[in-house]
């Protein structure tokens, strides 16, 4: 008489155990601690970065995610591996070992005016350079709109990648920045070649 091994019998009828596989998402995101603060990075399924936003707390994180869900797609999942390239580029930039980003961007979270301002800024103010709110307002042919330019930059959905930190007051003073003035100073010192201790 053959004896039946109970473990073998169970293995024969039990389903194989595999780690869960999450489906592809329209937008993948991750929250990353950086030297300049906590940032939410989000990328569409075609690889375009739609957010590199400062999120100091869970409430700020929720607000950014709600905006992405309403303006880009409701299918938003936390999938860190989908942001590996962006994270590497951001780390390299903040370490001073690169001067820009190659990841494609999408200004889906920006208003039409913000798009004009951010595109002009990215095209005209390079690494290590600075401009003023007034100069940027003139560059977008709205010379009396310095405050509107400041508001547009303050809500930049692609901080660091689209360098709103390079805009200062006409006196040269550092003014508002979504990540705080310490983050803005860090970025400007980094780009000017000074130690960022």
* Global mean pLDDT: 88
* Fraction of helical residues: 25-40%
- The CATH superfamily of the largest domain appears as Winged helix-like DNA-binding domain superfamily/Winged helix DNA-binding domain
The largest sheet, given as strand count, sense and whether it forms a barrel, is: 4 strands, mixed
What structural class do the secondary elements suggest?
Answer: alpha/beta
Give the SSE layout.
Blueprint: H1 6-13, E1 27-34, E2 37-44, E3 49-54, H2 58-71, E4 76-78, H3 84-94, H4 112-124, E5 131-132, H5 133-139, H6 146-154, E6 167-168, H7 181-191
Parallel strand pairs: 1-4, 5-6
Antiparallel strand pairs: 1-2, 2-3
Can you tell me about this structure?
By secondary structure, the chain is an alpha/beta fold. Helices cover 37% and strands 15% of the residues. It is built from seven helices and six strands; from the N terminus they run αβββαβααβααβα. It has helices at 6-13, 58-71, 84-94, 112-124, 133-139, 146-154, 181-191; strands at 27-34, 37-44, 49-54, 76-78, 131-132, 167-168. The relative contact order is 0.14.
Offer a quick outline of the entry:
The chain is an alpha/beta fold and 197 residues long.
């Amino acid at each position: 008489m053959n004896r039946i091994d109970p473990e073998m019998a169970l293995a024969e009828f039990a389903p194989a155990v595999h780690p869960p596989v999450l489906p592809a998402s329209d937008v993948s995101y991750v929250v990353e601690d950086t030297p300049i603060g906590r940032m939410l990075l989000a990328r569409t399924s075609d690889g375009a970065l739609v957010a590199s936003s400062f999120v100091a707390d869970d409430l700020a994180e929720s607000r950014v995610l709600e905006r992405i869900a309403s303006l880009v797609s409701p299918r938003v999942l936390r999938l860190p591996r989908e942001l590996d390239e962006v994270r590497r580029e951001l780390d390299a930039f903040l370490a001073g070992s690169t001067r820009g980003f190659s990841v494609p961007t999408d200004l889906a979270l920006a208003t039409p005016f913000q798009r004009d301002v951010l595109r002009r800024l990215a095209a005209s103010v390079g690494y290590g350079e600075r401009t003023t709110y007034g100069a940027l307002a003139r560059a977008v042919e709205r010379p009396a709109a310095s405050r509107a330019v400041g508001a547009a930059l303050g809500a930049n959905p692609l901080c660091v990648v689209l360098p709103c930190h390079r805009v200062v007051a006409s006196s040269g003073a550092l003014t508002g920045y979504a990540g705080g003035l310490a983050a803005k100073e860090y970025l400007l010192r980094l780009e000017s070649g000074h130690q960022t201790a």
